[in-house]
Amino acid sequence: MSLRSERSPPGPATALSSADRAEHGDGGRERRAVAKQRRRATDTVRAAVRDGALWKTGDVVVLACSGGRDSIAGLALLADLRLALGHQLVVGHIDHQLRNDGEAVAHLVRTAAARFGVVAHCKQVAVAAGPQLEARARTARYAALQAIRAEVGGAVIATAHHADDQAETLLMRLSRGAGADALRGIASQRDDDVVRPMLALDGNALKAVAIAANLDWIDDPSNVDTSFTRNHMRHVALPALEAGQPGAARGIVRSMRTLADAGSVSGFWVDRFLDSVAVTTASTLRLPRSAMPNDAAVLGPLVRSVALRLGVAVPGQRAATELARACGQGAPCSIEIAGLNVMLSDEYALFAVRHVA
After folding, report:
1. 238 within 8 A of 248, measured Cβ to Cβ
2. Whether the Cβ atoms of residue 111 and residue 71 lie closer than 8 Å to each other
3. What is the model's pLDDT at position 174?
4. Cα(157)–Cα(190) distance, rounded to whole angstroms?
5. More confident residue, 134 or 282
6. What's the burial of 60, exposed, middle or buried (CB within 10 Å: 0-12/13-18/19+)?
């Protein structure tokens, strides 16, 4: 267990340690600077919640808190904003039982929550060691957080994902050849009522908040294990980018916003187009063959919107490429893409939900 206690400088009556002096100095200037960073972060989160309508006045917000720096800072921010935003705050902490300091971490979370008059609900989940450990732990964690949300009548689950997480996510997805939808990054809202109000902040801003609030946190040793892809991006790839191009992470986040905006625009017009020409039933959607271009870049947003309307998984860009190739051949044919059968005739293109036995 690695306990971090990087506090803001105490008042004049308390002597600073040599480490405190080295990092924070003796005067009040550093304290004022850190306090200013905390206020700026609070303003940023307040704007994100209001602009994105992430929750409403009176809602119960369940903050997912691991005991690490980011979620501990998130606790301070959302506690500070209770009066301004009118929400009630509950903390949800999940112990995956993969570390031997689980009780110590839970105690730290409860103590931090109690400082703000917030109740912490701690649950244990069983995650066996083995392949895809991160993915299985994430699934178990969110299921447990949803159970806490149901118990307390929560409107949303808030996480402390931030701008650095966005940059890491984009690098991971780019390296896997992801399509335009995936390159939009981490969404501020998910369909399962998970929200990310801190995406506009970076890790340094959250660290400043935790220090300003005089909060301790515990570093998870697995976060420095670069055999995990995300950790490799965090500790190797991103620092290398920043060394060659200072501000690279912020630039990546801006690019993701641009991609998200472009996707929203294309989605809007594709939906307008489908509203005007598509004939839709519960499990099929039919378009004039003349509306099917043989350009995969154009077909991608179209196929995405069709899949969403028919309630099937959104196909990747490869599916759009296969469909474009079929459209370019001109002859009637039938192909399967993800959860859809697509039948192309001389007159129409029929998308039908594919039922797999």
Report:
1. yes
2. no
3. 80
4. 10
5. 282
6. middle
E strand residue ranges, the chain: 2-4, 60-64, 88-95, 119-124, 156-158, 194-195, 217-219, 279-280, 284-288, 333-337, 340-344, 348-353
Element of type H or E holding 103: helix 102-115
Q: What is the pLDDT of residues 59-74, one digit of tens each?
A: 999 999 999 999 999 9
Q: Identity (one letter) of the amino acid at 40?
A: R
Q: Are 9 and 24 in contact (CB under 8 A)?
A: yes
- In angstroms, the CA 146 to CA 293 distance is 43
Query: Which pTM value belongs to this model?
Result: 0.72
Residues 6+ apart with CB under 8 A from 26: 9, 16
pLDDT bin (cut points 50, 70, 90) of residue 4 is low
CA distance 75 to 108: 12
Question: CA–CA separation, 273 vs 23, rounded Å?
Answer: 58
The encoded tokens of residue 43 equal 């303003």
Q: If pLDDT is split at 50, 70 and 90, which confidence band does 12 have? A: very low
Query: In this structure, what token pair is assigned to residue 39?
Result: 């206020």
Q: Quick check: 5 pLDDT over 90?
A: no
